[in-house]
Amino acid sequence: MSDMYYDEEPVPDFVQQGDIFRDFIITTIPKDFLVARGGFLDENLEEGEATLKPSQSIPDLFSSGIELIVTRATKSNVIVISQTCDIQNREFVIIAPVFPLSRIESDKRVRAVKEGKTFYRFFLPQKEGIIEEAFVELTILNSVRRDCLSLERRILSLTHFYRGHFVYHLNRFLCRPFMPEETNGT
């Protein structure tokens, strides 16, 4: 059933939009994040312990242009969002997490994802022995260095046909006009 979704022989030489990779760290920044200052983290100080401070308590936050912050992180499979031509020509690539469909508890919401009615989630069918039914969470986008996308970690590649559906869904999410009926929580 899944050969209309996944290439049996992905392009061997390069990464393309719609490739799925295993075990990436996905980060999200909490509203009240911690900032690491001092110690081995600061190039101007000798080795020592860093201090974690709440971001709201630092008046000169980002005054030097860069900070080391504590984020939330999870490990998941990811799908490449960037255009194939951009992947080959840019230092950073946009990715999104791929979560098991079982993570969604409501049957109504699972159905909506499978039917393509949830604009911020894209359905990925099961591929026996490789991936269970899953979804791409388009509200959590990260960028990684292109050289992090090692072909040895690629587990699947969308077919040309299904990649077209993915791109359509991606455009629907990122480029749509405001649609009040799409704010119903599904």
Number of helices: 3
Q: What would CATH call the class of the largest domain? A: Mainly Beta
* CATH architectural category of the largest domain: Roll
CATH topology of the largest domain: SH3 type barrels
- As a whole number of angstroms, the C-alpha radius of gyration is 19 Å
| Class of secondary structure makeup | alpha+beta
The description of the largest β-sheet is: 7 strands, antiparallel
Quick rundown:
The protein is 16% helix and 30% strand. It has 186 residues and is α+β, with helices and mostly antiparallel strands. The protein has two domains: 137 residues, SH3 type barrels (Roll); 41 residues, no CATH class.
Detailed description of the structure:
This protein has 2 domains: 2-28 and 74-183, SH3 type barrels (Roll); 30-70, no CATH class. It is built from 3 helices and 10 strands. It has helices at residues 84-89, 107-114, 160-175, and strands spanning 19-28, 34-37, 51-54, 68-70, 72-80, 92-100, 121-124, 134-137, 142-145, 154-157. Strands 1, 5, 6, 7, 8, 9 and 10 form a 7-stranded antiparallel beta sheet that branches. 21% of the residues are buried.
Distinctive features:
186 residues; alpha+beta; SH3 type barrels; three-stranded antiparallel sheet; 10 strands
